[in-house]
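Supplementary Methods. Inverse-folding protocol.

Structures were first reduced to a discrete structure-token string of length 327. This string, shown here, constituted the complete conditioning input.
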């Protein structure tokens, strides 16, 4: 076991997989000499050379399109979108081409492509460096969408994503990069995509979350434990495929559920989770399904007080969990 933060787990996993498999190519803006804006590919250019570590123009459509071509031609590209906010010029390539390639070819072609992108706020990134875009891609059949919350899952899920025969959107919350640390097994392993985990067992209420909000949920749950309120925290890890069975199993035990996500609350990931709980476990509930998410405003503000207002945090989650537990 080695203690790492999230971005170290990304770097080391990518490095080891590239050393193991020469089909793996990384491409994106500044991934070469600079090693990426978060240094996730630092040193790769010197070790693997410019044919496998490709600095691209500032053109996300090109990044996605070239990566799709590489995947069809037998490579295993890992494309980096510098910030998730920049992904929209690539939307057509990802949605109309990568996601549909296996279907439109009647299974003759896969698209073993990973697109990595840092998402989320809390770093004073304002309009163009704070967005959460996972719900937009989770709506598209043919794409897997994952958002690991800790270094161990980053390693296992990134390896699984690279091995997957179809496209995977791999979202990393940028505030967790150096904030969240944890033990990572030294051996090579995979973590199945589409499988949630119980991050904290509990019996009084269920909280479902992922990414940075998962960390805030765990902190709030530990505070409430001092008041004999026992909160079970489910880390979705995968947005799609969605492991609703783990969620329903927890709701059946606790009878109360809160879903926490950073994205705009309206039509976010939590809306789908809430709908499936209502469809499958309505009569197991002893309280309302509670959703905590970002407000329905066009962008996360730059101003620190307004950014704090936008983002759920452990203090707010503690209050909302306590209310639900006492309902």
């Amino acid at each position: 076991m080695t203690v790492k933060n999230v971005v170290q787990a990304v770097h080391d996993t990518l490095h080891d997989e590239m050393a193991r498999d020469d089909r793996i190519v990384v491409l994106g803006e500044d991934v070469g000499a600079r090693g990426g804006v978060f240094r996730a590919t630092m040193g790769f250019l010197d070790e693997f050379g410019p044919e496998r570590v490709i600095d691209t123009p500032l053109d996300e459509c090109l990044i996605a399109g070239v990566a799709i071509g590489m995947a069809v031609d037998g490579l295993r590209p890992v494309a980096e979108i510098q910030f998730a906010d920049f992904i929209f010029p690539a939307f057509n390539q990802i949605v109309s081409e990568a996601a549909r390639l296996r279907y439109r070819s009647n299974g003759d072609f896969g698209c073993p492509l990973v697109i990595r992108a840092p998402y989320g706020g809390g770093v004073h990134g304002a309009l163009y460096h704070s967005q959460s875009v996972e719900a937009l891609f989770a709506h598209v059949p043919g794409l897997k969408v994952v958002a690991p919350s800790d270094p161990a899952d980053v390693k296992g899920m990134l390896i699984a994503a690279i091995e997957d025969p179809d496209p995977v959107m791999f979202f990393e919350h940028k505030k967790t990069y150096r904030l969240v640390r944890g033990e990572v097994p030294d051996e090579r392993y995979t973590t199945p995509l589409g499988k949630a985990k119980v991050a904290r067992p509990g019996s009084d209420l269920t909280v479902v979350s992922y990414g940075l909000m998962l960390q805030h949920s765990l902190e709030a749950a530990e505070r409430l434990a001092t008041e004999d309120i026992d909160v079970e925290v489910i880390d979705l890890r995968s947005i799609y495929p969605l492991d609703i069975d783990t969620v329903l199993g927890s709701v059946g035990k606790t009878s109360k559920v809160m879903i926490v996500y950073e994205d705009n609350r309206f039509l976010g990931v939590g809306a789908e989770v809430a709908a499936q709980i209502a469809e499958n476990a309505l009569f197991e509930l002893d309280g309302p399904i509670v959703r905590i998410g970002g407000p329905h405003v066009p962008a996360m503000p730059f101003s620190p007080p307004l950014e704090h207002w936008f983002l759920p945090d452990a203090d707010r989650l503690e209050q909302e969990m306590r209310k639900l537990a006492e309902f």
